[in-house]
Amino acid sequence: MDKCFSRSGEGKDSASTEAVGACPVLIFTRAGRSYLRSEVVGMKLESYAFRIFSPVMYPEKLRDIHSEEASIFASTVDFSGDGKDAWIFDIDETLLSNLPYYIDHGFGVEVFDHSEFDKWVERGVAPAIAPSLKLYQRVIDLGYRVFLLTGRKESHRLVTVENLINAGFQNWDKLILRAPDEQHKLATLYKSEKRDEMVKGGYRIRGNSGDQWSDLLGSSMSQRSFKLPNPMYYIP
Ligand SMILES: [Mg+2]
């Protein structure tokens, strides 16, 4: 990892080009935005990002695997029949794809602009991630209680509901968004607290699907967690 960047700060010579080009996948899967903001390598990374994460090459296969494996697990759970077996889905980059936004914003290379992203969210046109829609429907059909737990703001509830329905998601039990006084909590804490409330309510969290580790780790973790790929950004 460090080797990839060992010469990148020395200038735009051929060696730095090779160094950056040698491990772009590691850059996007393991590094934080601090690397992506590098003035020296930023433009090169952006060009690599476009090649790697264009709609054609985006890792749909990994999502297929996630959907299939999660579906198999969901089918193996012994239901008690009391309606307390639950499955949690994150929304962004789990059920809905913001790839159209990131195509226009450097695939995560640009510094995140909350205002611009909010405008995109408020259009309500994020497409479904097809393998996730398949899993979602399977989980519903099996009889799980479905909780949608998102870092989106409460003020985006209506547009989020409309976007989800238009993308094919229906019949969830509860949609949980961040209240105004929760805006500054780390995602791991915010989502843990919401899972804690579910467990206190008697729910057994059987599965949890999310694209960030902060969707999955913390307290009241699910019996089985399913991590989707997200090479574009990281949320602690
Ligand atoms: Mg997400």
Automatic annotation (TrEMBL):
Keyword list (alphabetical) reads:
Signal
The yes or no answer to whether the keyword Signal is present is: yes
Q: Does the keyword Signal apply?
A: yes
Matches recorded under Pfam families: Acid_phosphat_B
Cross-referenced InterPro entries, in alphabetical order? Answer: Acid_phosphat_B-like (IPR005519), HAD-like_sf (IPR036412), HAD_sf (IPR023214)
**What name does this protein carry?**
Acid phosphatase
Native organism? Eruca vesicaria subsp. sativa (Garden rocket)
